[in-house]
Specification:
Structural class: alpha/beta
Number of strands: 8
Oligomer: single chain
Radius of gyration: 17 Å
Bound molecules: BIS(adenosine)-5'-pentaphosphate, zinc ion
Strand content: 15-25%
Largest sheet: 5 strands, parallel
Strand order of the largest sheet: 2-3-1-4-8
Distance between the termini: 6 Å
Helix content: 40-55%
């Protein structure tokens, strides 16, 4: 199965993709994570992506498709994949359709995480993740249960993303509305779009998501 989580920065794509991984044995494929790894490793793709990411704009389709195809070529795509943060432009959606068609497949479901703009800046600006296992947290919305310790793995080191400032979050939201939101129609016309109220708390979003996803697996 190929599932897509569609929604603006802070909608909860990463949080819910990790839930689906644990629950259904799917593999999360986040182009944001792939690009951040490329930047950290100093690869050619990473050097080309860095400036756009820091400014909150989209990285070029060529570079994104290059890192995604490299990742898809690896064998561990499990019971299926959850695309988190991809596709983000019409050209990326068309490329994905072509890649899947070549394998005799198609997009199984696209879940649109519907949210309001203003609270998204707050979600993004307070976010941090466990450096050991990658679990996501938030200063006030999802704090650590034990001070200084990851709930999942007990790790004590945490990271904040360089682009998680209120200023850059605004640019990222604008990029979503102009370049990514048109994909909603593309997938509605293909008959695979499902809408989910992602202003609810994390547990309620997870519950609705499981209900939507389970029948498509
Ligand atoms: P990417 O890494 O994809 O970031 P993003 O889309 O901005 O999404 P986020 O990771 O910010 O949000 P999320 O929806 O995963 O929310 P989360 O679950 O963490 O992209 C980064 C950059 O890379 C882009 O700006 C671009 O430059 C580049 N890029 C990546 N892919 C690209 C592509 N395909 N093409 C071009 N460029 C690309 O949740 C946020 C916070 O809220 C967390 O703290 C969480 O605990 C909390 N939270 C989650 N759900 C809830 C809830 N229901 N209620 C309350 N709090 C919640
Ligand atoms: Zn951890």
């Amino acid at each position: 199965a190929v599932l897509i989580l569609l929604g603006p920065p802070g909608a909860g794509k990463g949080t819910q993709a990790r839930m689906l991984e644990r629950r259904f044995g799917l593999v999360q494929l986040s182009t944001g994570d792939m690009l951040r790894a490329a930047v950290a490793a100093g690869t050619e793709a990473g050097r080309a992506a860095q400036a756009a990411m820091a400014a909150g704009g989209l990285v070029s389709d060529d570079i994104v498709l290059q890192v995604l195809k490299e990742r898809l070529a690896q064998p561990d795509t499990g019971q299926g994949v959850i695309l988190d943060g991809f596709p983000r432009t019409g050209a990326q959606a068309a490329a994905l359709d072509a890649i899947l068609a070549a394998r005799g497949g198609a997009v199984g479901a696209v879940i649109l995480l519907e949210v309001e703009d203003a609270p998204m800046i707050r979600r993004v600006a307070g976010r941090f993740t466990c450096a050991t296992c990658g679990e996501g947290y938030h200063d006030t919305l999802k704090p650590l249960r034990a001070e200084g310790q990851c709930d999942v793995c007990g790790g004590t080191e945490f990271r904040r993303r360089a682009d998680d400032t209120a200023e850059t979050a605004g640019a990222r939201l604008a990029a979503y509305h102009t370049q990514t939101a048109p994909l909603i129609d593309h997938y509605a016309q293909a008959g695979v779009l499902r809408r989910l109220d992602a202003m609810q708390d994390i547990a309620a979003v997870s519950r609705d998501l499981v209900r939507l996803v389970e029948p498509t697996l």
